[in-house]
Amino acid sequence: MQSQRVWLLGFWASPFVQRVKWALKLKGVEYEYIEEDLFDKSSLLLKLNPVQKLVPVLVHNRKPISESILILEYIDEVWKQNPLLPHDPYERAQARFWAKFAEEKVRESTWDALCSRGEEREKAVKSSIEALEKFEEELKLKGTKFFGGETIGFVDLVAGFISYQLPVFEEVGSMKILDSSKFPATFDWIYNFLNHPVIKDDLPAKDLMFDYYAKRSKEISDEKDSCRNA
Amino acid sequence: MEEVKLFGYWVSPFCRSVEIALNIKGIQYEYIEEDLTNKSPQLLQYNPVYKKIPVLLHNGKPIVESMVILEYIDETWKNNPILPEDPFEKARARFWANFVDQKCFPALWKTIWSTSEQYEQNKAEALERLKVLENELGGKRFFGGDSIGMVDIVANFIGFSFRTIQEALKLDVFTEDNFPKLWEWAENFANCSPVKKCLPPQDKLIANFPPAYMGKTLVSSFQSRLQLQFHPPAAAK
Q1: What top-tier enzyme class does this entry carry (chain A) (predicted)?
Q2: Cβ atoms of residues B132 and A51 within 8 Å
């Protein structure tokens, strides 16, 4: 492969991969996309990410970088146009904080809610709502179109799953997490985000996501139940 | 004039990380010890989302979450960088810092709080993680090369406190035989002056951890008393 060529190993449904695709598009970086079957991982993936064996993996100048948030940082440092992070160190710290929060508190609890049942699911739904309330508060405080200000930035990309994936989780699990009357700023943000030219043309198909996550939700919940009963 | 304050807790390796970074950069700071069973109004004001230490206050502005603080310190004070300049090497360092933080620390922490039934399984997980880390260290003196960097800093728990606690509890997780390279790294790390300055006193560390194999009831009641002070990590997914 030519040394300047950029490869992205990904999986169509992965929100982690989606973040990276959006970042590359925002920067105008050409890349080759390689779809991985996460249930039958290629030897290429295992070679490029031997520690975690996960997507996304970005390959640039023949060197692999893994972990979506680290990849976003790398992309921002290598391709300086349309910066994702602010320039000022304090503002950068705030962005990193909220990106971490979106990933660890919001996304993880919504995933837990999807992949559990009964009381465990109720608890995860409650945690998701509590986390989203903090997110809502921060959005209100900022009062801008996006977390990044008037343009999409680091936090918007990391939190982007809220806009298109969370509604699918809610439908699959018949759960109500994002109530529009309780999260007006978040809903405004979702509207702006989904209508951004880079985002709206690059989203996984809703019906395919529904089928995939319905299957995963059942598989993981069944597995948890059988571990408990073992 | 710069005003730097750090709200911390004496046993927290996350606070140690921040202190080591500040010491590497030669930054003067005021350290404020928090009572985690009775958190100060300032802590709650500066970290309303998590209400946790460490909190770095720089000229009145709070920065929270230890890894975010380390990046802030490196970007604000340019001397003695703790991250490499090259973007790929920087990404590598961040990757391994995350691995230590999210995979190694929780696994080691679990071994300390194990009951006799849980110990062997928790030990096996910890050994697996340490092996990966030992391979990454390879022939280097430190993860950062010739001087300590972000990965070394984040691994401070392995470098000092864990060995002290494991010796007191007579655990056999991190041994020189099993991990000769990491063992040597730990010796070198603990002897670096930015690290030595802020290590918790050994006797105080030992006094705060119960003997292993106390039995489920005793360990869990101790744990619930400590719950307010230091949250054991959630079970690995």
Answers
A1: transferase
A2: yes
Which residue of A lies nearest to B68 if distances are taken between CA atoms? A93
Contacts of A35 (CB under 8 A, 6+ apart): A10, A11, A12
Does the model's ipTM exceed the 0.90 cut?
yes
- pLDDT tens-place string over residues A63-94: 999 999 999 999 999 999 999 999 999 999 99
**How many residues belong to chain A?**
230
**Overall domain count for chain A:** 2
User: Which residue is closest to B87 within chain A, CA to CA?
Assistant: A74
The reply to whether A1 falls in a domain is no
pLDDT tens by residue, A94-144:
999 999 999 999 999 999 999 999 999 999 999 999 999 999 999 999 999
Residue A74 to residue B68, Cβ atoms within 8 A: no
In chain A, whose CA is at the least distance from the CA of B58? A90
CATH number belonging to domain B4-76: 3.40.30.10
- Is residue A41 domain-resident? yes
Asked if A92 lies within 8 A of B64 by C-beta distance, the reply is: no
Cβ–Cβ under 8 Å, residues A217 and A172? yes
pTM of the full predicted structure? Answer: 0.92
Provide the residue range defining the domain that includes A39.
6-78
Q: Do A133 and A38 share a structural domain? A: no
Nearest to A93 among B68, B90, B94 (CB): B68
